[in-house]
Amino acid sequence: MAPHIKQIRFNYSPEFTQLLDTFAREHYEDNRKTYKSEWLKSKENHKLLFQEEIERIKQNGFEGDIEWKIFESIRYYYRKKVIKENQPIKTEKKPKEQTKLAGFSKTLKDIMDNHIKQSIQETTNIVNIITPATAFDDFCKSNIEEITRELIILRKKANRNIDEKEIEIKLKKAYKNRLYKQEQNQ
Description:
Elements: H1 14-27, H2 32-45, H3 47-59, H4 66-86, H5 106-122, H6 132-142, H7 144-158, H8 164-185
């Protein structure tokens, strides 16, 4: 039996994405009640496309209320994207100067990849489900020395005292992206 990794992210098909984007652009100014009633009409008008997308997402391993997740994504992500596009550009604010943080060493990346492979191999039955958050926590607990060593190296490269929270965010993002890529390769 293949390992089961709980899928947190999923992508819509191009046709469905286009439908969501169009809907969001047409209704981004609607109040909540109008937005929901128009959404229900749109769902009814595109019933076949909705059913195909729901089945595809279920086959990809998503568990839960798919219709609610789709509504949440259109209401809170697609709509917000349209609102941002339609806001006037403010030239008063100067962007913060960001110092680019150097990337992680190949050694740490290899340790991440090995940990991910080992976590996937240990997850052999459906009862034992791995999530990106739990895998990352386990990685941090089991590789404290390597992470500390990497922090020292990054601070030397940046010639400044890097905040540990900044490193944690970057490390978490790198780990979860590597996990996601390995999921896609299976």
